[in-house]
Structure formats: structure tokens, C-alpha cells
Amino acid sequence: xxxxxxxxxxxxxxxxxxxxxxxxxxxxxxxxxxxxxxxxxxxxxxxxxxxxxxxxxxxxxxxxxxxxxxxxxxxxxxxxxxxxxxxxxxxxxxxxxxxxxxxxxxxxxxxxxxxxxxxxxxxxxxxxxxxxxxxx
Length: 136
Description:
- This protein is 24% helix and 43% strand.
- It is elongated and about 50 Å long.
- By secondary structure, the protein is of the alpha+beta class.
- Helix 1 runs antiparallel to helix 2.
- The strands form two sheets. It has a six-stranded antiparallel beta sheet with strand order 6-5-4-7-3-8. It has a two-stranded antiparallel sheet with strand order 1-2.
């Protein structure tokens, strides 16, 4: 869909409308276990690869950004970002030990597709985080 819109008092030409999606999930391991931080990094890499492929399959033509943060309390955090389907995503890993319960926040701005499809792609991609599982 293409429409003309205004922003901060000035008009923009017609073009694709951005789809914005933000999700936050509390993740945990069975029985309150912990796993090495590098296993979480590998799981997040799988999540991001799956999410980008799924967005492309669902009709997204351009990525504004897909960013994420995993907060693991005293164990630290992990940031990730992608701005294209084919470019190398960036990761900043500041994990200092095993990770159990953590919180994942994903924010995506894409062009093409619709809000429902983007939200479904994010939700489906969280399965790539196994053995960490989203809590209801």
C-alpha cells in the first residue's frame, strides 16, 4: 500500500507504509536451570535469521530495523540489530556467566506486509530460542 503522509508539518511523497511491531517476552529454562551465555547468543542468532527469513516470506520488502535486547539480570545483556535482509547483523554481547530467566524485547520497523503478519513472524521466531521458552 502506498500513501502520502505528513510528518512534523511537512508532506512526504507516496511510498510504502512502515509496519511497526514491538514484543517483550520473559524467557526461562525448565526447572529454573541456567545455561552458558554462548548458548543464548547462538539461540538469538537463530531467532534473528528465522525472523528475517519469515518477514521476507510474508511480503516485507525493506527493513527499517529489527533490533533486540536480551536482559539477563546479573548475567548481563545482549543487543542485536539488522537493517537489511542480506547484510550482516550486529551483536553486542555483554554476558558474564550462565543465563537462566531473561527478558527478550524485539522492535521491528519494516516496509511491506501487515502488522498481524509481522507480529506472527516475531512470535514464531521465539521458538528458535530453545531451550529457553517464552512464558505465558
